[in-house]
Amino acid sequence: MLLYINKFMENKATIIVTGGAGYIGSHTIIEIIENTDFEVISIDNFSNSSIKTFDRIEEITGRKVENFNIDLCNKSALEERLSHVKNCIGVIHFAAFKSVPESVDNPYMYYHNNIESLLNILEGCLKFNIANFIFSSSCSVYGNISKLPVNEDTPFSVAESPYAYTKQVGETIIKDYTKKFTDLKSISLRYFNPVGAHVSGLIGESPINPPTSLLPIITQTAIGLREKMLVHGEDYQTRDGSCIRDYIHVSDIAKAHVIALSFLIDKKNKETNTIFNLGTGDGVSVKEAINVFEKVADTKLNYEIGPRREGDVEAIYSDTTKSKNELGWKAIRGIEDMVTSAWNWQLKLKKES
Asked: What are the residue ranges spanned by the domains of the chain?
């Protein structure tokens, strides 16, 4: 395998995508293959994803993707693999556990995995002279805030979950690394709530563990994989009592990561560490998302109101000014596009089962 990689990667610049079999990672790999000249290597140990993802990527793009099946928390294994990759000019780091309720139940797992893996991949970048680093951050870093929309200068509130805290800590780690090691340049992308699926309908969100994000729960309920779904609270100080989020199509997010990488490679950054929010700028409540789904799918969803869920933020949506003006990126897909593509993906999964 490694001889193949050496020969294959000899002349072209290579991008490493950690968590490449995951939801956003896989869509970003497709974006890289279809819209750049880079070679791409994935690192994914399938802790919450499937090796079948790479078959889906090949079906869409016609390209096989090489994957290193290693745990990023294993520093020696990571560095051994990185030593065989030639002309690597960037890392896009997605690999992390991401469930808010799971992080509340098992904080050790989140602190160990999310922080240790980040430290190891940063050390790998330094050791093998990989100059450009894109970090998958999250709007959860902001916590509960009183003024909306949030921009990149909005101060952090107390993290509402261990998951959110790992993103706060992760951003601080990256800032410290790029301050000390100025040959390393980074962008942290704080994206809001990724949803939807690829326009082909051939790939979408399909975690091994039960999903905790809204749209997969909606579509699984509608298809009969769940008897019903819970709306976690309707007594928030929002227009309909349910939580409000800035939902953003996964393909828009994937494109943003490739644009961010080019931004660094082309030396457009003014600082060694730059932050951008990725959102649509519009907040959608849980109940509103359900209503859109019922319209798109022409079906009634079996749901009931439950108690608030620990770790949830009441409302958050993005100020998109900086990402539009400086990064040159904006979301182009609306909530109906997101819901329609997610439902088409769920229908495909049903046919395959």
From this structure: 2-195+249-278+322-332
Would residue 317 show up in a list of annotated catalytic residues for this protein? no
Q: What is the DSSP letter of 312?
A: -
Q: Are 166 and 219 in contact (CB under 8 A)?
A: no
Distance, first Cα to last Cα, the chain:
32
Q: What is the pTM of this model?
A: 0.92
Tens-place pLDDT, residues 156-203: 999 999 999 999 999 999 999 999 999 999 999 999 999 999 999 999
34: which residues sit within 8 A by CB, 6+ positions away?
Answer: 61
Give CATH superfamily name and number for 2-195+249-278+322-332: NAD(P)-binding Rossmann-like Domain (3.40.50.720)
Residues forming beta bridges with residue 278, ordered by sequence position: 191
CA distances from 45 to 18, 54, 55, 261 (A): 10, 13, 16, 24
Helix (H) or strand (E) holding 222: helix 214-223
Whether residue 16 is predicted with pLDDT greater than 50 in this model: the reply is yes
- Largest pairwise CA distance in the chain: 59
DSSP 119: H
Short-list 31, 17, 21, CA closest to 249: 31
How far, in Å, CA of 282 to CA of 284, rounded?
A: 7
Both tokens of 286, joined, read 């849980």
Distances (CA, A) of 319 to 30, 83, 167, 191, 326: 27, 40, 19, 11, 13
Which neighbouring-strand residues pair with 245? 284
Q: Give the rounded percent of residues in the chain with a pLDDT score beyond 70.
A: 97
Q: Half-sphere exposure of 79 toward its Cβ, with a 13 Å CA cutoff?
A: 12
List 23, 110, 163, 247, catalytic entry? 163
> Cα–Cα distance between 113 and 132 in angstroms, integer?
22
The four Cα atoms 243, 192, 150, 259 give a dihedral, to 10 degrees, of -160
Cα separation, 201 vs 346, in Å, equals 9
Mean pLDDT of the chain: 94
Between CA 53 and CA 336, with CA 295 as vertex, the angle to 5 degrees is 50
Rounded Cα distance between 344 and 339, Å, is 9
Would you state the structure tokens that stand for residue 191, as one six-digit string?
Answer: 């994206």
